[in-house]
Each structure stands twice: as structure tokens, then as C-alpha cells.
Design brief:
By secondary structure, the chain is of the alpha+beta class. Helices cover about 25% and strands about 30% of the residues.
Length: about 130
């Protein structure tokens, strides 16, 4: 039985950005984002809800207005900004996503993920973390 995205699972995604609507950036390699699903104290963000019950190998496309991105990605917004950097468009963020891994997270990983989620719970650019988001 394939593992599906569930609470406290370690989820690894492969992300490609769109350079224009419907067209992915093929000039750069996809980047990887790994996180523990469902650790934010505010509950699941809309992005996590879109991933719920998906299994390894599934693909989805996400299109979010840049102004709504922080609310949509929740605690994952800052890590997303860090790994994608200048590859994010100013008007609409379009991502091609493949779920490349769903595994059990160990207790230490869960505690670290909770701490990171709390540290970036709305820091904007004022916390000094260097994320620039």
C-alpha cells in the first residue's frame, strides 16, 4: 500500500515554477521542499489541504496570486521563498508539483518542524531571519 500525505508525515516535493501561465521554467532544475505535514499551530494551510491524501508520484499544479501566497502557503511560505528565490513571479505564483516522498517522521524532526513553523509565523521581513519574504 502506497503512503499518502497524512498528519505528521514527512513529505518531499519536487517544484518547478512557471515563467508564464501554463508554461514551466525548463531552464532550471526542479527544487526540492521537504516538510512535516500538519505541524503549524494554526492548523492546515490551504496548500497542505490540497496535498492531503495524495500519494507519492502524484502531480498537481498550484496557481496563487502573489498577494494571497502567504495565506495560501502558511508556515511553508518562507521556506518556499528561500528555495525558489527570484524564480517567483510578482503577479501569480504557478508551481508544478510532484510528491516525491511520503515517509514517517521521527520525533526529533517533528519537534524541529514545529519550532520552525512557530518562528516564522508571520515574521514578514522584520524578524531578521534573512528570508526576505
Amino acid at each position: 500500500m502506497e503512503a499518502t500525505v497524512q498528519l505528521l508525515k514527512k513529505v518531499t516535493l519536487s517544484l518547478s515554477t512557471a515563467i508564464e501561465p501554463g508554461k514551466c521554467d525548463t531552464s532550471g532544475s526542479p527544487v526540492s521542499l521537504a516538510f512535516i505535514y500538519g505541524v503549524d499551530s494554526d492548523g492546515l494551510c490551504p496548500f497542505e489541504i490540497a496535498l492531503h491524501d495524495k500519494h507519492e508520484g502524484e502531480k498537481l499544479t498550484v496557481s496563487v496570486k502573489a498577494a494571497d501566497a502567504h495565506a495560501y502557503f502558511g508556515h511553508l511560505f518562507h521556506p518556499l521563498c528561500q528555495i525558489l528565490g527570484g524564480r517567483l513571479r510578482d503577479d501569480t505564483i504557478e508551481l508544478e508539483i510532484e510528491i516525491t516522498g511520503v515517509t514517517d517522521a521521527d520525533n526529533r524532526e517533528v519537534v524541529q518542524a514545529v519550532a520552525r513553523a512557530l518562528a516564522h509565523g508571520g515574521c514578514g521581513t522584520s524578524c531578521g531571519c534573512g528570508c526576505g519574504c
